[in-house]
Amino acid sequence: MHDDSYRSVLRQIGGKASSADLTVTELEKVLEHLKRCGFKVRSSKGACRQADDAQSKMIRGLWLELAACGAVQNRAEEALAAFVKRMTGADALDWLSSAQASRVIEHLKRWRDRIKEAV
């Protein structure tokens, strides 16, 4: 797809000229439109598996709980990875030490509790 065509679809369906400016809902609308037009979604061959140890599952679960409450706008794994990197400096959940993972878990729990208290 040429860039001009792509930008046109973004403007018509998402209302913005750049995908970076779209919300998750707007991105989903654009993707659904592209699928109806024949676009095929393929996973990348180099896609990394998700960390599946108990602490990583807890971190991911808390992240998704915060997203469900509206506290986190982007529930994607990449957004979680960026949050963890800002907190710990580690590029992936797999690379967290037990102490780092515990710190992230406690931070997310406190955040969740503040949200629940506000409601």
From TrEMBL:
InterPro entries linked to this entry: Phage_Mu_Gp16
Pfam family, one: GemA
Organism: Paraburkholderia denitrificans
Protein name, as recorded: Regulatory protein GemA
